[in-house]
Automatic annotation (TrEMBL):
Metal-binding keyword on record: no
Needed cofactors: FAD
GO cellular component assignments: plasma membrane
Domain Acyl-CoA dehydrogenase/oxidase C-terminal per the UniProt entry, residue ranges: 225-375
GO molecular function (one): flavin adenine dinucleotide binding
The protein's name: Acyl-CoA dehydrogenase
Pfam family, one: Acyl-CoA_dh_1
Protein family: Belongs to the acyl-CoA dehydrogenase family.
Gene3D superfamilies: Acyl-CoA dehydrogenase/oxidase, N-terminal domain, Butyryl-CoA Dehydrogenase, subunit A, domain 2, Butyryl-CoA Dehydrogenase, subunit A, domain 3
Residue span(s) of domain Acyl-CoA oxidase/dehydrogenase middle: 121-214
Amino acid sequence: MNGLYAATLAQLEQRLGPVSGEGPLGQDATLARDEGEAFPAEALTALRAHGVPDLLVPASEGGQFVSFEGALAVGLTLARRDPSVALSQGMLCWLWLAWMVGSPGQRERARALLQGTAAPCFAASEANHGADLLATETLALSRPEGWEVTGEKWPIGRASHAAFAFVLARTRPAPGPRALSWFLVELDQPTVVRLPKVRTVGLRASDLSGLRFARAAASPVGEEGQGLELTLKIFQLTRPLMAGLGLGTGDRALRVATRFALERELYRASAASLPAVRRLLVGAWLRLLAAEILLLSGVRALHGAPGQASLSSPLAKAIAPALVEQAIRSATTVLGARAFMREGPAAIFQKMARDHAAVGLIDGSEPVCLHALAAELPQVFTANAGSGDLLRTRFSLEEPVPAFAPASLGLTARGVDDVTAELPPGLLPHWSALRQGGSEALRGPARLETARRYGLLHAAACCFHFERFNPGLALCRAGVPALAGQFLMEPEALPETACREIFDLLAARVEGGHLLSVTDVSTGPASETALAG
């Protein structure tokens, strides 16, 4: 079954049933929630009954978590059904803050939370400062009776439906890297006000709101002054997982467009017989596969190369959602008017497209993540100290990863990127061209574009490494991951013969009821209804 990732995907697809089925996780319920902007409480209860939350919780805390690739599989499977449900369930990942540095009492509080469907919320951003955490105004003061927090956090995911919040607050008057600390605040206090839900374009069923604190009792999480460091480290865990929701939106959107092309008759033939249509769909699938491989490398690095996560996690968050966005754009072109219909058999497409647009903003937008990546690149460009020794651990799905060791996470990768330290010959010219700009390319307006180009090169290299270390996978035997890597760097160079062959593989996945994944996992009988109409 090619390891934990594929096994988790298969297990969840079997447990949760077809995406078009009945119940709170089926398509009708998903669309109704979206139209009504209703929090998915019933769906979360169903997930609890299926044991899904346990897959996100370490065994030491009473769960069944083995590695972050299992958590990535959870996000993909849930987002295929409803990204709002996937995001709401994914809020459990914030409990890693307690599991990494929390007191025994806080860890016990987290364990108690898991008995039901509740989750914490992560209260870091503020309306006036966004991602500028050093400008945080929320203040925590130590008094004889304990710590108190005063301030406002907005916008916050799941704030209206959380049992408690992790709150980032200033504990020193002067701003600086040691001026911030984390606190656990129970939300049933009279000193806490839950702000109204914000109406959004995508993820309508999610809870995006805020919190106002007026001397609310709080308990410190970790050491005083450790707030910024802990934030950067927790983002190393959550950024690739949140980006992974796009694998589900991309799967569903591309599946709808491909089925439409196969069924739609144009000029007395299937729309899929038109080379331009095939190329759009194949390009979309190659980008989706590249995003999945990049994210698999990123989450496996948390176990096998945690010291590089400060580079690999923001890179994955910046690049993977953008690749899926391009894939959905291609699928939109194929679907035409049906891409904008809120009813009918293709109605789920417009929801997936709207929801995915928000995925790139969660836990750091593309510019924020490219900025973090750019800070790592001067050392990588000067002398990449990486080696190929860890590539098998990062890419072979059949190779178990080491146990996650939070203490091994760092704040900088120190110029190490194993993925680009060993490049296939076809990518070397792109690496040389990227480095020609030298330090100038990492300063001024070109800085983020240089980081984006490096991210694409890294993603392309991941595709080649993945194919090398997974010879048993059907797509690897067909050479598809390497073609995906080439396509990222030179999309116009994909031969028409290869395009036809890859489209046949894509069509077989859609018609045979299989995930559009690098793995070969059945979703059960093909469940989407006819779309051509």
